[in-house]
Amino acid sequence: MQVYTILSGARKVRLGLHLSISGSIDLVVDRALERGCNTLQMFSRNPRGWRSKNLDLGAIEKFKIKLRQSGIWPVFIHTPYLLNLASPKEDIYHKSVETLKDELRRAAELGVPYVLTHLGSHIGHGKQSGFRRIIEAINNSFSAVENNVILLLENTAGTKNSMGSSFEDIEHIASGIENRRRIGVCFDTCHAYAAGYDIVSRGAVKHTLQRFDETIGLEELKLVHLNDSKGGLGSKLDRHEHIGMGKIGEKGFRNILKSRLGQLPLILETPINKRRNDIENLKKVGELA
Questions:
Q1: Which of 191, 242, 254, 276 is catalytic?
Q2: Which end of the chain is more exposed for a tag (fewer CB within 10 A), N or C?
Q3: Domains, the chain, ordered by start
Q4: Measured distance CA(209)–CA(227) in Å, rounded
Q5: Helix axes 202-215, 249-258, angle to 10 degrees
Q6: Per residue in 33-49, pLDDT tens?
Q7: Contact of 169 with 128, CB cutoff 8 Å
Q8: Is 56 a catalytic residue?
Q9: Within 10 A of 13 (CB to CB), how many other CB atoms are there?
Q10: Has 48 been annotated as catalytic?
Q11: Catalytic annotation, pick one of 225, 242, 254, 276
Q12: 163 φ/ψ angles, rounded to the nearest 5 degrees
């Protein structure tokens, strides 16, 4: 199948999906190629449990060989769903920190340059408590696992008690990290829109990116989660929709893809249902670009 490589002048867009590692971790590369991706995101373990098996050395080698031969790059590992780096509950917090350390190690074993994480919820204990816990968790993890893997902080939709829905909050966390060169940002379009950042008109996209640059710095942006939003602007509803079928709409994605965001690796986390599948969403991005 042809890779959906979108050309804009001499620029090649990196477009991919979050894909399963079921069976063996090297099979994720096969799945990416089958769908025409030239970048990908994955879990390195079961995302719904705390325990993980050590990566098989044979599978690691197969993964690296397939990746090198495929031209798929870069690759991103998403931390498990259970992680809550802002949790005031000691058992959850301890497990979250240990899991983050493990993901940083696993990424290095696989030769994957990026791990990305949600920032969690303070569960009613307040943002300042959440900030402190997250910063301590990341500093602790970086001290324990010294490698070149970059941790990407993902913006959130602003649901109750969640951390990291504003650019200012993400910068507050990043500024507290002792080894900031190992920190970057993942910009989720659905989350940003739901949190109140307008990205529909060309002017709105430009204004939002200007705010990001003034607050964090565009050089910190390493990945875009390209998702439409079921909720409206500022709805705080974290519900992804097919590209062009939600409130951001086709107009919004045309303008997003023409902006600085379109120059970054783009990972789709859109639904799979009767209305549209992954490949159809990839094709839609190609049409809109």
A1: 191
A2: N
A3: 7-288 (3.20.20.150)
A4: 17
A5: 50
A6: 999 999 999 999 999 89
A7: no
A8: no
A9: 20
A10: yes
A11: 225
A12: -110, 145
